[in-house]
Recover the amino acids of this structure.
């Protein structure tokens, strides 16, 4: 049995080895590829995460700006006060985002959006495999949320964090697309 936590640790180590310049360059390529997809072009209601800088996550500023500039309904996730689930608050401007204790910009108010109304969800990940399985941080926030929506799910991942196969469990939600810089 492959240890998911060991894989997660290795992938996080690979990602943390990227320089700030590499993160910025690769993230820009990934975001531009997302913006070119029909899924993004056709979506009216989009949920997009704000990246955690200290974890070297794929940045999302270009995607957030593209949503706002094209008048899409944009929502961003916030950990619910229950500590185990995500809520998604509508964002009309990046001026309304406040940095939380992890350095993540998030909405502190704004209408709570229904996952069933979303057309597209941009999903963070530690790594992924070529069968579109995602490895998150192991807390299950996104799997619980994604089980509530029929939206197209696009995971953002650096090519260096793609592996042949991830161990999966019945509750794991497969992505519709994984987009890398390659």
């Amino acid at each position: 049995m492959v240890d998911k936590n060991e894989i997660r640790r290795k992938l996080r180590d690979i990602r943390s080895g990227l320089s700030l310049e590499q993160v910025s360059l690769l993230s820009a390529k990934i975001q531009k590829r997302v913006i070119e997809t029909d899924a993004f072009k056709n979506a009216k209601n989009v949920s997009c995460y704000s990246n955690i800088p200290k974890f070297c996550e794929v940045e999302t500023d270009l995607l957030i700006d593209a949503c706002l500039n094209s008048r899409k309904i944009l929502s961003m996730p916030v950990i619910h006060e229950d500590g185990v689930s995500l809520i998604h608050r509508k964002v009309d401007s990046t001026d309304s985002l406040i940095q939380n204790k992890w350095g993540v910009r998030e909405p502190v108010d704004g209408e709570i959006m229904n996952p069933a109304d979303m057309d597209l969800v941009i999903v963070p990940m530690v790594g992924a495999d070529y069968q579109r399985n995602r490895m998150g941080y192991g807390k299950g926030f996104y799997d619980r949320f994604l089980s509530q929506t029929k939206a197209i799910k696009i995971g953002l991942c650096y090519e260096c964090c793609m592996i042949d196969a991830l161990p999966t469990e019945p509750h794991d939600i497969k992505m519709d697309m994984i987009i890398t810089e390659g």
